[in-house]
Specification:
Helices cover 20% and strands 27% of the residues. By secondary structure, it is an alpha+beta fold. The protein folds into four domains: 107 residues, Beta Barrel (OB fold (Dihydrolipoamide Acetyltransferase, E2P)), CATH 2.40.50; 109 residues, OB fold (Dihydrolipoamide Acetyltransferase, E2P), CATH 2.40.50.100; 53 residues, E3-binding domain (Dihydrolipoamide Transferase, Irregular), CATH 4.10.320.10; 207 residues, Chloramphenicol acetyltransferase-like domain (Chloramphenicol Acetyltransferase, 2-Layer Sandwich). The strands form eight sheets. Strands 19-28-27-26-22-25 form a six-stranded mixed β-sheet. Strands 1-8-6-3 form a four-stranded antiparallel β-sheet, with no helix packed on it. A hairpin with a 4-residue loop joins strand 20 and strand 21. The longest helix is centred in the middle third of the chain and has 16 residues. The termini are far apart.
Amino acid sequence: MAVIIRMTKMTDTMVEGVIASWLKGEGSTVKSGDILAEVETDKSTMEFENFEDGVVLYVGVKAGDAVPIDAPIAIIGRAGEDIAALKAQFNGNGAASVSVPAPQAPASVVTSAPASIAPVIDLGSIKAVAERMPLKTDTMVEGVIASWLVEVGAKVKSGDIVAEVETDKATMELEIFSDGIVLYRAVEAGQSVPVNGIYMIIGEAGANYQAILEAEKGATVAPTSAEPVKTEVASPATTTTPSTTTAVAATSPTGRLVASPLAKRLAREKGLDLNALKGSGEFGRIIKRDIDNYKPAPAAEVKTVPTAAPTASPYQESFRTERVSQMRKTIARRLSESMYTAPHFYLTMSINMDNAIAARKSINEVATTKVSFNDLVIKAVAVSLKKHPKVNASWLGDTIRYNDHVNVGVAVAVDEGLLVPVVRFTDTKSLSQIGTEVREYAKRAKDKKLQPSDWEGSTFTVSNLGMFGIEEFTAIINPPDACILAVGGINEVPVVKNGQIVVGNVMKVTLSCDHRVVDGAVGSAFLQTFKSLLEDPIRLLA
């Protein structure tokens, strides 16, 4: 009986193995204990031992290919045995496929389609289409419906905005591309939909949209846990009048809070509890005017009653919990991946900023746009990257990409985390251009108006906490960049000049390096160039 041979886990940290060489080819007779191949793991090249007797009927992975743990690599069985069903577990280019589990059964018993293949449902006759969650950012894996702007039964047309969706980086509008009636909403406001998952179905009244949902259950996208909304279109006699939707409790039928993203942000800034407000927007939605017009109820009078000496502490423990935003989820995921997959090492250097302070003062006397120390840092980084291209690089697994262009990402703090808009072709821009661009990005980031094109494509990142009084820190690399520069504040400290101790202005910077790409000597050379530029900033203007 033919069996599939799978990649085994050979070290405690191994996630895949590379077939260094095959020692037994197709047609070879093998027995238990024979060495089939040499496999390069994450720690060494090891022998792959066979535990089956028979003939190597099929080799599904070429030498040099990487194979995940438990993926099929070969088939062993009796000479002449039909292995067509087992070979189907390998994809067309010879590499192993792990998406379909391999049955450990004779080929002769495979008489029907695998259970994982869903029956085909003909949707051609159904007058309805599914609207799917689009990929709105490069790191987005799901979107949270911040608010619905249309109800089931509403007539819509292509180009309408039907919802606001909270991504990992901003709140954006969901635009539809079909005409018809809203037949189905997959989730309530506040719930998430995976990228490419169905969030709405639009079509003709009475269309069998359930067939679309049944077909989706047989696909790889998990079905939603939300109950389908009834599809009957409300008649004029039962339609809610404006007077009944004004100043009502801002909760959905399931009790979830309904408020616009702007209202939520204003409420946070003013310290207001949205649960205490009533919404005047559509379907009781809390909007900006509800925040502006809110007047808290007068505090109730508290009477003090004399008591005996207290027997317990007057203090009471309390806490609150907040739903993790999509932005915070993505920050946590990406930085965890970076910290635990990229081997970080750190290089710290002190820079005398006396000349930079004087140069900035002179520049700002004639510049139309004020230049900050951060602008000087970004420009010095860009010039240094052109001189040290090995730092301007990205780890891509099997290859390293050395970028000829310089796109510096600038970390910007916002309420819910950190965004990194990108100053493109930084080395070609003046200090004033860099300053104007960074300030515009910072404003748009705080207003949640950045677009995916604004934060994609960095080749190096700068994180500056000097304006917050931080003297020195280390930063986590922003993938796929190979390095990030952490910039501290400028402090007056004793320094030695011409044999005398004098007061100097010193700034400390720390370069975090991905050791897979950048070695210590390369990172040190980059910092030396960066230091020389800031200590003699006239060279930045050359």
